[in-house]
Amino acid sequence: MLKVRVQALLATLALLLTLVPAVASAQSVPCVVVGSATVNGQAAPVGTVVSAIIGGAVVETATIATRGDIGSMQIPSGDGTEVSFTLDALTANETITWTKGNCGNLSLTAEVGSAGAGASDGSKGSTGSSGPAGKDGADGAAGAAGPQGPAGPQGPSGAAGSAGSAGSDGSAGPAGPAGSAGSAGGSGSDGGSGPLGLISLILAIIALIGVGAVYFMGRQSA
User: Fold this and answer.
1) Domains along the chain with CATH numbers
2) What distance separates the 2 farthest-apart alpha carbons in the chain?
3) What is the pTM of this model?
4) Which residues of the chain form beta strands (DSSP E)?
5) Residue scoring higher pLDDT (23 or 68)
6) Nearest CA among 34, 186, 47, 24 for reference residue 96
């Protein structure tokens, strides 16, 4: 009788030892999700930490290695079934219900300023130091000509130029008007008068007649 009891006890222990690993294995099956993440409509940058939260405790994290891709997350069970997510300090808009095995595809979205209800903005940080000056840009295209400026002051007189060559003679001008009459000449000396003058006149007449006669006689003889 004792031997039967011992065998029954050993069988029960063996059964318990078989069930405990099975139960433990069943409880350790995670919720597996794959998907993407965006922040303000843009793919989450490389290095963004994705955290899965159950009951206010972080149960799993993953770091984005490819822009916008959260890869695969194996989320263990926690204190509750609702799983929320954060992208760095931003709270994602999506939640899932924890179940064993495949929990499907997940597209997480978050916006700057959605870090959760009751959160207040942090204080403004100090202004960073100025960066180095950039290189000079290329010259721009020439602008349109501006309006004409006011006239400048008169410059100094230039040196005198050399004399030009003489011009050609001009045509004769029209005859000028007649001059005014000249002043009267002086009185001439008195001519001879009396018998001598008369005799001289007669002799001159005779001489002229004689010369004329000789001339005509010469013509006739020729």
Assistant:
1) 29-110 (2.60.40.10)
2) 235
3) 0.42
4) 31-39, 42-43, 49-54, 57-63, 69-75, 82-87, 90-97, 101-110
5) 68
6) 34
